[in-house]
Amino acid sequence: MIDLRNIKGLYFVGIGGIGMSALAFYFLKGGYVVAGYDRTHNVITDSLSAAGCAITYDDQPEVLPDLFRNDSAKSGVVVVYTPAIHSSNRILSNFREHGYFVCKRAELLGEISSGTDTIAVAGTHGKTTVSTMIAHLLKQSEIDCSAFLGGISKNYNSNLLLGQSRFTVMEADEFDRSFHKLVPLIAVVTSLDADHLDIYGDQETMIEAYNVFCSRIRPGGTLIVNSSVRNEIKVPHEVICFTYGPGAEADYHSSGIVREGDCYTFDLITPGLTIRDMHFTFPGIINIENLTAAVAVALKCGVTEQEIRKASLMFQGVRRRFDIRVDLPGLTYIDDYAHHPEEIKACIRNVKEYFGERKITGIFQPHLFSRTRDHADGFASVLDELDEVILLPIYPARENPIPGVSSEMILNKMKSGRKKLLKMDDLPEALNVGSLDVLVTIGAGDIDRLVEPITRKLKRGA
After folding, report:
1. Which of 270, 440, 421, 241 has the alpha carbon at shortest distance from 344?
2. Which domain holds residue 76?
3. Residues 234 and 186 in one domain
């Protein structure tokens, strides 16, 4: 248990991450002293600094703010870190050596979860979009919610939403078994593709971890599972389970999807209600499936049909999730966070469904040496579905290099004749705007640093 009653300040090691920053903003707004460390500036750290957070980009303990250097005050300090931070980080080591209370981000989020009616969204892909949709449906209703999101909601320009409701929406992160700290009232499982095998070893062990997460649902709670993975999930006693998906076998499903221009129209079938003639303008047919999960949760929370209709039509999406940055005649640019072969497959399917037969160029940055090693064949196969591909070097994140593992593993396995490997510094200058039709940047590393420069170049050259 983390007793926050006598805490004066929190220090976040890795504060610029999307999950850590939401917690930092949360405690800033709660009146706590908040400071942190990260390796580099980004938009999030700039926003935190503007809000009054002291951030350092040097891991020397000497640069810590006074409250976090005074050992006599350490009983009033909580130090929070993310597993993405390397164990050799000097600031983190300093706090441990001096006896500060140090915890993972998941433990702090779990403490918040235990005190609210938590809606936790788990899955190897789709959880950011689904959790953001759920939060949006609740915020646009009389129900309301707070939310800790894994992306920046374009409706609210934030990854933290605060409300007066008893409901709190959270992403349930499977990495390092972090989601085992949550105690949800309602849980969603979107997908169970093999991932984080550096942690789990194999997919079966990973699935078992998901079942442990499901076992933490409160008695009387609700579990909503994608129908494609229902057979892998063990439903706890005293928990009601529903399925969602695109097919009629799911408890919650869509029917009669028609696209006219930029708008989808369809019926949404639920166990107690059919919402007819829904209108949804967010691109990509896969997002109708994501919306179905969100509607299932919203209805369980008491959101009305009319509130769902209106909020669905207003949904703008999440930055870096099928994020259309440029949409001009004959030139479109999309940025997407996909970093697993199944996620990339869904992204490409969305692009092809939405933009038809147009030529698609993809820029992909692999994320983690271990994931590249484990899924090189899958990456090569799905990238071959693109018309042309630019590969970037692997983004290592928390990992040290693995001998023999590089982006060339993927490149050499690809069958496409239109592929090449470039350094980050070669882009965006290497792009020939005149030859592009639909461009997609794909990856979860620091490829997002290219988004604004590419956007500016495409708009200048169009």
Report:
1. 440
2. 9-104
3. yes
| 327 and 310 fall within a common domain | no
Residues 442 and 407 grouped into a single domain: yes
The answer to whether 169 touches 148, Cβ cutoff 8 Å, is yes
- Segment 323-327 shows an average pLDDT of 93
Strands 167-172 and 158-161, sheet pairing: unpaired
Look up residue 77 and give its amino acid. Answer: V
Tokens of 171: 């992403």
- Does residue 192 form part of some domain? yes
Per-residue pLDDT reduced to its tens digit, 394-406:
999 878 899 999 9
The reply to whether 96 and 141 lie within a common domain is no
Same domain for 144 and 258?
yes
Is residue 287 within 8 A of residue 322, CB to CB? The reply is yes
What is the DSSP secondary-structure string of 200-263?
HSSHHHHHHHHHHHHHTSPTT-EEEEEGGGGGGPPPPTT-EEEEEESSTTSSEEEEEEEEETTE
At 113-168, the pLDDT tens digits run 988 999 999 999 899 999 999 999 999 999 999 999 999 999 999 999 999 999 99
Tokens of 324: 């259309």
